[in-house]
């Protein structure tokens, strides 16, 4: 700080005070005078400082350049940026392109929403709004409604149900609600627009609704968490959504399953995902009834007391995958058909012996399997099924540490491979099989973690005990530097150190559209 001679300023103030306040005798008048002096003094200094700022490097950055930098800021930091200085404030407040994505990231007040909306000009709006703990959302709705024609994407994370969204929204493409929704015929103005993505919790649908007739992707929950609430009425789904391509139904239970649609799904449907939370209810009959012959991917998730007939899923399979960690967790059976078509069923707590029995029951439908991908812990229980695959060319064994699919915390030794299940490779009749891949992945070990030299030695010790007439074995997942001292003498084995390793997933389900 430069030297500052306070006495000179003091003398100047006394001089000015005597000149300006000489005739004031009334206390009220003196108060007003002092307020005026302070305001003028502070304003004058601020204006002078602003002039200095304008000369600085930061002050010379054009508003458009500032605005393009601010475009990288999350919504909540935009407001902070507007408080920094006059030029930043001008750049932030005068650029509609900074405001069209309104996602405060936490509780949104009507005032903040109003402020942001007022700055958006005519931009299409992407909004992600949430309210805290049951706070009323009607005020937010009232602020939003006048801008409805500009809304392109709306995510509404509010606990309480709101009004039925009957405002006109001709350019809305995506609507997501986290509360129970009553859809009326007048939804989004009662006419078809551009709506494609509809992600709902429980919902009541009318008999007809033009605005949802254009939807291609629908997520809906059948049964509410709260027993007092009504379950969704999905009986008219196929008529309401004639162009549906992706459908996910969650929260099916035995008591509400009669509210699911009946009959064949629209021919446009390509991907289906259904989850049942009753332990004893089988979703397979629903999928078979809905199957339109065009389904590229099907995923059913259900519980252990069901014994689904896998015949239709299995028929024509060229790649079979069985993912299993323990009998208390999920067992996932994946059937891949030609052209990448997949059928997957995930059964919680069924136990690998029961899962193997389900496969054995449809063994004749598996005669076209060329590739089998199995968790190594499932090798022995599946030995009978695998040995009876007449055209199995490639056996892919997926190996994770023993805890990788369970909770790994607290766990003293999450990185702990168990190789003994590989002993059952000796009992598989692999006459037509030309290669075996051992895919070793550290699963949920703390990143970064890879199988190491000790793991390699233990694995090879296990493999040395196998008969020598097995097909060639390729091992993936070991970094080259861990293999420098590994001895492969006499083994028909090679390490592939460049192969990518990861979870055993045949088909990754489609993710929800999200512009944020
Ligand atoms: Zn590890």
UniProtKB/TrEMBL annotation:
<feature type="domain" description="F-box">
    <location>
        <begin position="55"/>
        <end position="102"/>
    </location>
</feature>
<protein>
    <recommendedName>
        <fullName>F-box domain-containing protein</fullName>
    </recommendedName>
</protein>
<dbReference type="InterPro" id="IPR001810">
    <property type="entry name" value="F-box_dom"/>
</dbReference>
<dbReference type="InterPro" id="IPR036047">
    <property type="entry name" value="F-box-like_dom_sf"/>
</dbReference>
<dbReference type="Pfam" id="PF12937">
    <property type="entry name" value="F-box-like"/>
</dbReference>
């Amino acid at each position: 700080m430069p030297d500052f001679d306070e006495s000179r300023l003091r003398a100047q103030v006394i001089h000015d005070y005597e000149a300006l306040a000489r005739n004031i005798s009334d206390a009220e008048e003196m108060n007003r005078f002092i307020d005026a002096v302070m305001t003028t003094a502070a304003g004058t200094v601020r204006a002078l400082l602003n002039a200095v700022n304008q000369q600085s490097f930061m002050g010379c950055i054009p508003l458009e350049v500032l605005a393009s930098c601010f475009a990288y800021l999350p919504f909540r930091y935009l407001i902070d940026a507007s408080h920094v200085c006059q030029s930043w404030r001008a750049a932030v407040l005068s650029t509609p392109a900074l405001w069209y994505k309104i996602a405060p990231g936490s509780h949104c007040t009507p005032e903040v929403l109003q402020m942001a909306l007022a700055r958006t000009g005519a931009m299409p709006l992407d909004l992600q709004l949430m309210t805290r703990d049951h706070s009323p959302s009607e005020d937010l709705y009232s602020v939003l409604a006048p801008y409805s024609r500009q809304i392109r994407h709306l995510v509404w994370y509010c606990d309480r149900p709101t009004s039925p969204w009957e405002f006109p929204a001709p350019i809305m493409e995506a609507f997501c609600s986290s509360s129970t929704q009553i859809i009326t015929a007048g939804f989004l103005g009662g006419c078809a627009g551009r709506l494609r993505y509809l992600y709902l919790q429980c919902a009541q649908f009318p008999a007809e609704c033009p605005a949802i007739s254009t939807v291609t992707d629908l997520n809906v929950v059948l049964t509410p968490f709260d027993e007092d609430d009504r379950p969704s009425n999905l009986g008219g789904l196929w008529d309401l959504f004639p162009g549906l391509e992706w459908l996910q139904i969650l929260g099916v239970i035995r008591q509400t399953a009669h509210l699911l649609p009946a009959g064949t799904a629209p021919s446009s449907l390509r991907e289906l995902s259904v989850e049942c939370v009753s332990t004893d209810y089988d979703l397979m009959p629903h999928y078979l009834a809905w199957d339109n012959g065009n389904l590229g991917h099907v995923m059913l998730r259900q519980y252990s007391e069901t014994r689904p007939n896998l015949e239709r899923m299995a028929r024509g399979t060229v790649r079979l995958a069985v993912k299993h960690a323990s009998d208390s967790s999920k067992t996932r059976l994946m059937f891949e058909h030609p052209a990448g078509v997949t059928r997957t069923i995930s059964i919680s707590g069924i136990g690998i012996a029961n899962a193997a029995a389900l496969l054995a029951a449809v063994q004749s439908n598996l005669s076209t399997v060329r590739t089998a991908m199995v968790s190594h812990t499932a090798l022995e229980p599946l030995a009978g099924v695998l040995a009876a695959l007449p055209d199995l060319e490639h056996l892919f064994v997926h190996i994770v540490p023993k805890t990788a699919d369970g909770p790994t915390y607290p766990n003293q030794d999450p990185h702990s491979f168990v190789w003994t299940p590989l002993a059952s490779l000796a009992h598989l009749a692999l006459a037509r099989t030309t290669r075996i891949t051992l895919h070793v992945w550290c699963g949920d070990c703390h990143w970064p973690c890879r199988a190491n030299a000790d793991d390699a030695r233990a694995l090879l010790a296990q493999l040395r005990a196998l008969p020598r007439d097995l097909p060639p074995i390729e091992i993936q997942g070991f970094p080259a530097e861990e293999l420098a001292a590994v001895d492969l003498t006499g083994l028909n084995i090679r390490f592939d150190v460049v192969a990518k390793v990861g979870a055993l997933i045949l088909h990754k389900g489609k993710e929800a559209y999200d512009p944020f």
